Amino acid sequence: MFSIITIAMLILMITTIVMFLASILSKKAIIDREKSSPFECGFDPKSSSRLPFSLRFFLITIIFLIFDVEIALILPMIIIMKYSNIMIWTITSIIFILILLIGLYHEWNQGMLNWSN
Fold first, then answer.
1. Which reaction(s) are listed as its catalytic activity (predicted)?
2. What is the spatial distance between Cα 96 and Cα 74, in angstroms, rounded to a whole number?
């Protein structure tokens, strides 16, 4: 019978050989200039870095993050409901949802939700 050390060394050698072969076989011989250049959000990295950037993309991202965090905060409120005082839970939930609705109204009033532009 083989000893445990012999089996461990055999497994180590096999995995080393397999990783070495995978590394050699996965290399691509053709280096493409376009694939080697950095990609920055669709902008040409070789052009001027001071091109005008639409603020609308930034605002859409911020609105998405706000509503994404909102969902992460609302979902645990349902689980906490049976462990907390129902009056305090109700007041906290109403205040939280009211703040979110005021923020949504403000975004709508400022025209941030107008997708036609």
1. a ubiquinone + NADH + 5 H(+)(in) = a ubiquinol + NAD(+) + 4 H(+)(out)
2. 9
β-sheet bridge partners, residue 43: 40
Q: Provide the phi-psi class of 30: left if phi over 0, else alpha when psi is between -120 and 50, else beta.
A: beta
Q: How far apart are alpha carbons 12 and 38 in whole angstroms?
A: 37
Distances (CA, A) of 64 to 20, 22, 59, 75, 95: 44, 41, 9, 17, 21
pTM of the predicted model as reported, rounded to 2 decimal places? 0.48
Q: What is the pLDDT of residues 72-88, one digit of tens each?
A: 888 888 888 888 899 99
CA atoms within 13 A on the CB side of 29: 1
